[in-house]
Structure formats: structure tokens, C-alpha cells
Structures
1.
Amino acid sequence: MVEYPVPDLADVTMEAVLKALGDPTRLAIVRMLADGRPRPKADVWQQFSTTKATCAHHFKTLRGAGLVTYDVHGRTHDIRVRRAELDERFPGLVAAVVGS
Amino acid sequence: MVEYPVPDLADVTMEAVLKALGDPTRLAIVRMLADGRPRPKADVWQQFSTTKATCAHHFKTLRGAGLVTYDVHGRTHDIRVRRAELDERFPGLVAAVVGS
DNA sequence: CCAATTGTTTGACATTCATCTAACGGTGTC
DNA sequence: GACACCGTTAGATGAATGTCAAACAATTGG
């Protein structure tokens, strides 16, 4: 069973979050998942014109910046924005970025 | 008389803004000026351990992303966050980023 | 006009980063 | 156990970027 640890948001800086969001693909991913509901990774990466590998790289970057987490189900993974935690750590940020 | 044109915020994307803010120095600059009040450029760059040239580069980047504008007074320039315009174009963003 | 001051630009350099292909690693299924 | 499937990792590559030193430009003042 593979593990995909996420950082404690207390250790995540605004700078790291903004850096992660400063890429068009990653911003689009976060916007797509902004409601906090999990979605199959395959569904996400198929929306873009990049390869699976590139998308996996972006997923990892977003996870490292505390923005998303994975739910593993057998072979497939769901990805999900840590909306509630983010709203507590960085109030208003996700909403502003998504343009809610 | 040198001109320093700023983009119309209607033409500025969230992506461009986040990219500009994704650098630690630029984020610090915006936070320092977030209230929208002008400050001498010299006062700003002296707060950092970078050279004048590097700071001028960051100023230009922030200006190009629509985040700041300059007020020229003879030899010296004031720099200022376009707070009101930004708040209208990207509601809540500056406040969230600054951690108001 | 000349010199000092303030800020920008240029060119170089090292680093970071997004991207791809190819190979690898778990997981479920037959 | 063998194979197909889903996703990650490794390595390579080219582009973008932050940084600095040095040269340049505009302005003020003597």
C-alpha cells in the first residue's frame, strides 16, 4: 500500500501556495476541484493536453504545497482540494483565486 | 519625461497575478505596500538583501502584472499597489494574500 | 556645462522548472 | 502466476527566471 503524505498546513507558507498556483495547468486543476469534492485523477488529466507524466508532476507539486490530497482506491486515485483546511489556514484565498 | 505604463486590469489574468506573487521578494514587496499608499522605491529595496538592479526587475514584473504603479517625482519614484482597482478586478485576493 | 544621484537596462550566469519518452511499480482480473 | 491497467519515477532537454556587475539614461544642483 503506497502512501502519499500531505504536509501539515501550519507548515505551509503563503509563498509556497502562490508558487504552486502560479502555473496555468495547476491553477486550472485547483479551480476544477475547488469545491473540495474528490475526482478521479484520470478525469482530471484528460482535460488537459499534457501527458499523464506531466500531470502526475503537477499533482505532486500541488500536494507538496498542501493544496490537494489523494484518496487511493485500489488501482485508481481520487484527487481533492483540501478546501476546509485551506480556508482555515488562508482565509478567503481559495475563494478569491477561484473567483467564486 | 519617462513613462511607465500599466496594463488595464481587465486584460490581466489571475494566472499572471499569481505568477508575479509566486516569488518571495515580490510577495514581500506587495505585502509591504498592500495598503495602497505610495512609498519611495529606495525605501523598499533597502529592506531587502538584493541589489538595486534585481529590485528594479521585480518592480517591473509587478507592474507588468498590474499589481503596482509608479509615481514619478523628479529623480525619485514612489511605488504603490493598485489596491482599489485590484479589489474590484480580483475581489478578496489582495486581502487574502496579505493575510489582512 | 559638469558632477552627483536615482533608477533602468544589458549581458552573463546558474538555477529552476515544465515537458516528454521510457521504464518501473502496485493492483485487480483472468 | 501472467497480463492488463493506473499512476509514478527517472532521465533528458529546452525554456524561463532570479541574480549580479557594469554600463546607461534621466534629473537635479552647483
2.
Amino acid sequence: MKKTTIADVAKHANVSKSTVSQYLNQRYDYMGEQTKERIEKAIAELKYSPNILARGLKQKSSTTIGVIVANILHVFSTQVIRAIEDFCNEKDFHVIVCNADDDPVKEKRYIDMLRAKQVDGIIAFPTGENVELYKGIMEENYPVVFMDRLIPGITINTILLDNEQAAFLAVNEFVKKGHERIGVVSPPLTQKVTPRFERMEGYKKALEHHGIEFNPDYILSGEIEEMHTKLKKMMRLPVPPTAILAINDRTLIEILTYTKEEQVRIPEDLALINVDDVSFASIYNPALTTIAQPAFEMGKKAAEVLFDLIRDKGLSADVKVYRFKPELIVRESS
Amino acid sequence: MKKTTIADVAKHANVSKSTVSQYLNQRYDYMGEQTKERIEKAIAELKYSPNILARGLKQKSSTTIGVIVANILHVFSTQVIRAIEDFCNEKDFHVIVCNADDDPVKEKRYIDMLRAKQVDGIIAFPTGENVELYKGIMEENYPVVFMDRLIPGITINTILLDNEQAAFLAVNEFVKKGHERIGVVSPPLTQKVTPRFERMEGYKKALEHHGIEFNPDYILSGEIEEMHTKLKKMMRLPVPPTAILAINDRTLIEILTYTKEEQVRIPEDLALINVDDVSFASIYNPALTTIAQPAFEMGKKAAEVLFDLIRDKGLSADVKVYRFKPELIVRESS
DNA sequence: CTGAAAGCGCTTACAG
DNA sequence: CTGAAAGCGCTTACAG
């Protein structure tokens, strides 16, 4: 089944390829009515559809962008991708999705391959490594937007949650309910991953703001695997925390596994707030008080900024960090 | 910043474009050691990376496949996509993700655009419409694999859960626990969407197998919005069901919203099993008994089958329906 | 062992 | 108002 090409259409309509191409690109300026009709008919009869790859070769655009997430299984990433895809669909663009698994080697490989595929731009949740790679991209003015994470020394447009504010909202809510012994649970803080790091900062500032003394025993940070033991240890302190802020959905699951096992009552024995409005928040027993991220808006913004860069050939007037407001959703766990 | 092309490399290395191309494609058969080295050096110095679009134009491959899901926000779809992407990554392929939202018009648009982009194959969760479109594709031997849904009259390789078995497992578990009044909750059964339809069939067969009389009052099907009222009605029957099979995760959420609101105790007042091992199954109170789908295996299989088709130019010897076994995970709700 | 030439399917000045 | 020609960046017989 040989594909029909523009040449076939031209022959069938008795015009030149150029004229067909003009027609396809809506340059009807000087085109005769009859020519137009003949071409239209030929296209319909041959069921012709142009090869976008060939067009892209000439026009230097693949009408495709790449999105590199850590892992598409994370709900936040999924929502961001959905928003980006909706935006792209309106512009007749497609999106290639890549999972870097927080692995800088995979990240670099994907970026190189996407660029080899002439992708018009990339939205990435950067691993934080590959600084040289991104520096090079910056210098070339290749369109890139960062999502969720900042890389020190790299000035690239970035979409972020107001992470400090997120922690602030949680601590405020706890204080309002009378808590003073407020703990926080986070994945490892060794790497300066933006969301974790900033949320911790916000937590500390909020305590200070409320005149609560900072207690290092109430900060739990570690790999998911060791979280259970660490949690047990923290809750068995002579004076344990009465409220806990879970820094993301993964840590929330660990905490709930623990409270279920140990039959800890929420919020009586332990109040709980987490960042990310998980799917089961309102049906859980008790319903979970959460801090929601506007994931769809953030994804949409990332797409908008990227398309502006693409239009302006990467020469954005000013590189910005866009901060989005988190929202406290009070339910029963706080 | 003009991109460096194969011509630049050729000039720099003092050879012809052909030779550079041979080098790039590892056809070293007769290539002189020095030539090789000179090219290698030139590539490194110019930081050359080939334009895959141009290569694709000649080779008639975009090393890209399309995946059309109903909605990437569904966990099952996400897992399937992740498995497909991992598979593609090993083959140096990329995947374009599209959300058809169960809208046949969007579905058709995506398929047309993906094909115009010379995508090498498509994995789709078909809406069930666009029968003519798929018939045409079939006749052209264009590589397509269906996921999750069958379309009557279209013989295309399809990956499915053994849906009857899924319902069977649930009913068996209920019967084992002494239940005889077993209900089922499903989205609308009007359209013959494969999973719903087959799971209902399995439910009926299972009842028959256990000698339980089929009671139409225990079958609830409807839009998500009206489910709550219908649920209330069913539970207020003179003789209400004592166990419910939720046909997917969306209906599960509705049921749990209801039971939470009405303080129905699970499993004492109502036993519950749902298809899809949701993320909160083990931390819910009570932990949920579920039927898990092997989503990753299913996604991987879809990719394997598609790549076989691509290799064989769509001329697969035999079109098959691949059935995957569901797994009963007994927790506390049954 | 390597190069000149044609071609993949388009677009785009330019000429007439 | 329309066509011939060159070119986008590759690959691939074929010749030598």
C-alpha cells in the first residue's frame, strides 16, 4: 500500500506540486476557483493526508514537545501531563512522555533523543543533576520549562508550588486546633529537592511565627523503607508530637500504614495534614485534611510559557519563577 | 545557532556525506581505520547529532508510537502507559500520549494526526465507535493493538483482563464468607463497554454456578452522578444485599462515600470487593479486598505485540485476544 | 574502500 | 494565477 503523496495529488488534479502545497497551506490569494476545486476533489478521491514529518523537515518544527517526568505513576505528574496535553491538542501539537525515574543518566538520554527528534521544546521535572547539559541548552536558547524543581545556577523558567506557604497553611491549621507539638515527615532531606526543602523551611518559619520552639526530635526524614521504624520511634518519645505534617503523598501512606497498625486514633491521638489532595482524602475514615496543589493550572502554565518560548525562538525577555498558591482543605483529620 | 548537519561533519573530516552516513549506521565493513577515526573526531568536535526526522523520512519510520487512552488520569491507564514506555525506551522508541476522553471525534482526530506524523504503530483504548476507521486501518495492515476493549466486527489484536473471571473471584469470596444476597454496582450498561459487560456476565454465571438465584434488584447501573441515590434505594430494599461487587474504582469511590455518610459498617453490614487494586486498599479502614489487574504485564504485552506487528509490517499471522488473569487480594472488607 | 547522485515528501522563493 | 527548481538532512544503491 504505497502512500499517496503530494505528487500524486498534483498529477490527479493536473497542477504542480507547488500549487497543491499552496492549497494545503491556505494560501489561496491568487488561486483560481477551479484549481482549488480540482485539488480539493483530488485530495478527497485519493484520501491524501500530508506527511507531517516531511513538512517538519523543511519547516524545522516537529509540532511535538517532550515532557520528562520523574515517574508518570505519581498523581501530580499525571495531572500536569493531562493539562499539558489538553493545551497542546488545541495547538495541534503532540506530547511525548518520558519517565526519568530521578536518574540523571536517563534524563540526559531522553533530552538528547528528544532533541535529535527535533522536538520543539521540553518541559522537565529536572533531577537536579545534568547542570552542564542544561547550561548548554540555555545558551542555545532552546525552549525548556522546569516543573516542580529549581536548579541552582540555571536560569530557566520554572513552575513551582508556593511550598513554604503550603507548610505554613498546615501549621496554622494545627495551631488553630490547639496543637503545639507539631512534627513533620519527609523523604530524605540530604539532596536539596526543592519541594521538600522549601516545605521544611516553611514549617520552621511557621513555628517561629507562632512562637513555638523548634524541636529537632519532631523532624523525621528518611527513605520510605525505614520510615515505619523511625515513625514508631518518634511516636514513642517521652513527649511525642500530637500533630504531623506529611510532606507528600508517599509519606502520607507510610503514616497511615503506621496509624492503622498501631490503632492510633486520628485526630484524637494524632492530627494529620498532608500536601497533595489524594483521591481518597474525602472517603477515608477519618476524611483527610489536605493541602491541594493546583496541578492542572500549573501544567497549563508550563505549556503556555513553553509555547511563548517556541514562538519567540527561545528568546524570552525575562526568565521567571511562577509560584502557585496551595489550598488548605479542612476535613476531619486535623 | 545553525545546527550542524552531516554535510558539516563530512567537510570537517574530509570525506563524503555517504561515508559519514555509513559510519553512523555502523556499516564499518570496508571502512579504513583512519577514516573512522577522522569521522569520530569530527563528530565529537562539532557535537554533531543526527536529525532523526530526516532519517525517518527516508527510512519511513518515526521510531515513535502513539498511545490513545480514554484518560491518563485513570490509574489503570497510567500503569499501562508506564509499562509501554519502559518497553519502548529499550528499543529507542518514544511514545506520544493522547487522551480521547471516550469521545469518538477526538479519537478519530488523534488517529489521523498520529498517522500523518508517521507514527509506526498505535495502541488504543478504543471508544467503540469509529468502526469504519478501524476497518480501513485493518485493511491497510497498519499496526494497531487494542487495550481493554473489544470492538465487534473488528479483528485487531486485543489485550484484555479475564473479566468474567474477575467477577467470579469476587462472588466466590463472598459465597465462602456466607453471603447469598450479592449485589453489583456498575457504570451504565447500555453501551456494551467490554469490561463492564463481561464482568456482569461473570457475575451472573458465578451466581448460577453457586445455585444462587439472580435478583435484578441487586443490579445497580447508572451514571456516577445518580449512583448515590440509587445506592440508597438499593440498600433500603426490604431485603437488601449483604455484599456488593464494585465493578471498577470509580464506583468504589461512590460506594465508600455512601457507606461513610450513612455509617454503614464494612464488612459487618455490607461486604465489599472491587475490581482494581486501588492505592489506598491496604490503608483504608477496613482494608479493602480487591481484584487486582496485572496492568504492567498487560501494557508490556501490548507493546510486544505491537512491535511484532511493526517488524512484520502489520502482517501478523494470527490476530489474537490476549486474556490476563485477575488476582483476588483478600483483606478486611469481604 | 569511498564518493556522486538520486530520492524520501514536503515548502518556498522566484520567474513568467 | 501557476510551475520549475532548489533545498530541508538524511540514506542507499551503484560505480569505480
3.
Amino acid sequence: MNDDPLLARLAGLAVEPPDGLLDRIAARWIAVPSPIGELSVAWTARGVAYVHQGDGFSGAFRARFGRPLMPATRPPAGLVPALRTGRLSGLALDLEELGEFQRDVLRAVQAVPRGEVRPYAWIAARAGRPGAVRAVGTALARNPVPLLVPCHRVTRSDGALGEYVFGPAAKQRLLLAEGVDLGRLDGLAKERVFYLASDTTGVVCFPTCHNARRITPAHRHGFRTLGAARTAGYRPCRTCRPDLQAA
DNA sequence: AGGAGGGCTTCTA
DNA sequence: GTAGAAGCCCTCC
């Protein structure tokens, strides 16, 4: 037997690496509640890296990140509120694994406020690739951190909600939970109205822009295209920037 | 290495 | 209304 304390600690190190090292190599994970049910969330020292719904979490994580996963006893500070509200408020994300295009797209998506929606084409323009509309869809399909990067707020230009990583039903539930009036949006889309203008301010907005929601009915005018609104003398809202996606 | 094909779209006929 | 192709990025072969 050897009771030298130094040797005993060295032996311990051989079996179990110190916490700091392990945390740099491995990711932690935990199951947390969300508006669409329980989610599995993984994070590294840099921030939250992966949000997953349903079965196959650890397999999907390994396939994607190729690093070990260890259970945690509590979520990172602010994670649960961020999932509930769709606002990060300081919560860090680890998006290191992603390509530049995908990071640009996710950054553009962060600009869509809670309770509002924007078209895929708007995201493409904001990401600096106005023609990459289809590729934006692909990038969002691979969004590793849904809810935290609110890709559920990106909808089709024709008014349909479009697809979603966790399925269209989850997209709908999330938007309703944020207070988006989907019935009204649908009504507008049926009339081919995708922009709302106010003749008191002379400004034209996306229908879910908080500025558009305050237009009184008597002063509200709907337009199918931004060009039509401009011809009628309206200028694009500086908050929701409908001019970003189309000429 | 390089091309084909696919994906949360969108525009056109 | 809907089918088809354009279009861009990524993955895989």
C-alpha cells in the first residue's frame, strides 16, 4: 500500500481528468421545458450549442458534434426563460461549428422581434445574399439552436407559414404563444395583402411590425407589393425594413 | 477534386 | 390554382 497523498492524487487524475479540462472537451446536456414540450439542450464552455426535440438526442449530437456528452444537474443561467420568451438576454450561443453563410443567416434571424414574422427573402437580403432564398431555408433547417435563434419567425412570402425543424405544427404553436395573430395574417394573405401602410405617417410596414399594429382601421391601406405602396407615396418603415427584400 | 442532387422558397406561365 | 424552373449553399458520392 502507498499512502503518499501526492501519489494518490496523481492516481486519481489518471482515472478522472480535472473538471476544467473535461468541460473544454465534452458538452453538458439537460432536459428542460419549453412552449412545445420538453427539449434536450447541450452546451459547451462557449455557450448553448444544440437544442433537440424528441428521441435520438445523443446520437444526433454525436453525429453532428463528435464530442462526448455528459449530463448536467442544472441548466445554464437564463436558458429556460430564453426558451420561453425567445429572447436570449445575455445567454451565450456556441455557433463555432457552423459555416459563415449559416452564421450570417442565423444572425439575420436574431433580428426578428418576438411576436413578429419576416419572409425568407428578407432574411436572405439581411444576410447579404439576396438571391440565396432557397439556401436560407436549408440553413434554417440545420439551425442547431431552434427557439433560441427564432427561425419559427421566418415565414413564406405568400403568407404560408412554411416548414420548420420541429414540424409546421410546432411553428404554429410557437407563433401563437408569442401572440402572433395568425388568423388575421391568413385573412390578409387571402386578399393578397403583404404590406400595411398608414396614411397618417406615410409609412409602409410588414403586417406584424409593431408600428403596423397601431394603425387605426380608417387610416390603414393594404398592398400586395412594396412597389405598389411606394407608387402610392409610402416609404418603407425603418423598423421592419420591408425594403430589404425587394427593390 | 468536382459535379449532382436536395432543401423550412419564390417567381412565372 | 398548381407545375416547373430558377437559384444558392451544402453534403455526399
